[in-house]
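Notes, p. 3: input format for complexes.
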Amino acid sequence: MKRNILITGGAGFIGSHVVRLFVNKYPDYHIVNLDKLTYAGNLANLKDVEQKPNYTFVRADIADLDEMRRIISTHHIDGIIHLAAESHVDRSIKDPFTFARTNVMGTLALLQAAKEYWESLPEKYDGKLFYHISTDEVYGALELTHPEGVAAPFTTKASSAGDMAYGTEFFVETTKYNPHSPYSASKASSDHFVRAYHDTYGMPTLVTNCSNNYGPYQFPEKLIPLFINNIRHNKPLPVYGKGENVRDWLYVEDHARAIDLIFHKGKVAETYNIGGFNEWKNIDLIRVIISTVDRLLGNPEGYSEKLITYVTDRPGHDMRYAIDSRKLQSELGWEPSLQFEEGIEKTVRWYLDNQAWMDNVTSGDYQRYYDDMYTAR
Ligand code: NAD
Ligand code: DAU
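Output follows (377 residues plus nicotinamide-adenine-dinucleotide):
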């Protein structure tokens, strides 16, 4: 079937993997990648698909309602996968207004433009979908009831041998929203607007909430690419607080595959949680990164451990995220394809082999911002 799909934020980390998957897998779909190209958006992430006949890039700001109206009607968009956002918690602490503008007002403008266009068509909402990509951070933080870890009650291919859980609770689709950072507050607000457009106007919408992603093309302000790059350059590794916070890590291509499945088979108005049951304490994850980078660079075992530098904690730092993704697994048959150790090895290799990509995104204006962020600590 021919379809015209708008993917927002397609030049960013996760968006570029989703665009690549859709452009290659669905030659009959026209994929329109809409991105403002902020510091986090990089068209070099999509070099391999930019010449494909079913791909179009449009530079635009999702908060510009008239532009959203024009783009959605010009391209006869019938499906939207909305990833564009300001995504970094530390930046949201310094500049919450930008997060409210893009994540809240931008999502609202996109919803409104889609509503107006779809309601103007004879078939109205038939065959349409507004799919909003959200985060587990909207649920708040779980407690670290087992700081040393207990045997995990659930495992998937993404989990490692000797899987651990650091608490007894998990985020499920009905967990009450309780965001703590300006970033998660803005994402929670956008999720509410998406559901409100379904409940009020009957727009076919769907929301998914995913845990921490890792893999190629992630901007090196986020833990994993930042630390890989710092180890390579023999720079300090700033561990927030005691390094005991826990995150649930999923390889980015497994998230992209889940998005594809849910876009095509998910039930309208539903929420699906996406995660790998793959919990890691930051300090343990950092040690895995250090040993992988050292091994691949030919350094002696433990060589870069000296770079670990404990710094002031992130204000309001959420202690533990852990997603229960059994609904997605049982209803739609999704499961992660990569085991964590395999995924980390692939990721470290990618960053080491793509130094030119890293040098490009860590130069110029970004470099100044980045220096300010970390010298202030
Ligand atoms: P990212 O920061 O790497 O990319 C965001 C993209 O959005 C960039 O290309 C940027 O240019 C674009 N953008 C920002 N403001 C825009 C605007 N006003 N108009 C148009 N484009 C704009 O983010 P990411 O990590 O790829 O996350 C993508 C989405 O997935 C976000 O909505 C995020 O909340 C969500 N998410 C991320 C993770 C994660 O671990 N990274 C996990 C769960 C959910
Ligand atoms: O859970 C999903 C979320 O994961 C997404 O919604 C966000 O967009 C994404 O940025 C990510 O948020 P986190 O805050 O968990 O990711 P980050 O990589 O910034 O940090 C991961 C953990 O590592 C967190 O506990 C903070 C810690 N950290 C991070 C950095 C950048 C450090 O200790 N030192 C650092 O320098």
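The longest helix spans residues 96-120.
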